[in-house]
Prior knowledge:
- This protein has 8 helices and 10 strands.
- By secondary structure, the protein is an alpha/beta fold.
- The protein has one domain (14-226): Alpha/Beta hydrolase fold, catalytic domain (Rossmann fold), CATH 3.40.50.1820.
- Strands 1-2-4-3-7-8-9-10 form an 8-stranded mixed β-sheet, sandwiched between helices. Strands 5-6 form a two-stranded antiparallel sheet.
- Strand 3, helix 1 and strand 4 (62-65) form a beta-alpha-beta unit.
- Helix 2 (87-93) packs across helix 4 and helix 7 (206-215) packs across helix 8.
- It starts with 7 loop residues before the first strand and ends with a helix.
Amino acid sequence: MGAVSGTTVRSGWPCAGCIVEVPGGTRASRPIPMVVLLHGDEGAPGQIATAVGPVALRRRMIVFAPQCPTALGCRLEDGAGASTNSWWGWLQYSRSYSDAWLGDQIERVESTYPVDRRRVYLVGWSGGADYLGWYALEHSAAFAGVAFVSGGVPYHPSCPSTRLAGYFLLGSADPRYQSGQPVAVNSILARCGGTTRLVVLPGLDHTGAMLALSNSGYATRMLAWLTKH
Length: 229
């Protein structure tokens, strides 16, 4: 993770493998926004925390990057004898999936640090973005906006209970974009009255869109867009 001076970093809290970063000088009397970052099928939050966390901290946002919980069955076989923590795999295949788990962890962070609960944002990369196609829409009242990076599955085809702003960052050469699923999620949010922004980066593949967060400044653009909502 790129260091930002004065930041408080907690690893392994409030859940196993999870990361919380709090900007220096944060005061209990002045609640600030929080961004929740969901990893992809690499299975751990370090990559997305590195790509988005420093930008969020400079914008004076609390960063929470949870790891999908191994203890609750968040493990997906990759077909080659290995397994990984996968948000969408947990949702689709685990009998011990808990739709309340992520919200419970967010509440633990909110009970410890001064989070402005009107300005909590979700960002998912790859399999984390796929999962948000369910979770963000099902729990829309808890969030001010959501960003999908290289993913998004229309698990929740009906309108969310409240309008939800959605930002989509995709590469034109990414099979996830070419599947049409992330664009379908965008269409659901737009049809239901939410403000959306669809950014398709020419020639970039699945990993390329993730790298564009740090290499081409898209983390800054994405968070600037989200925090207007």
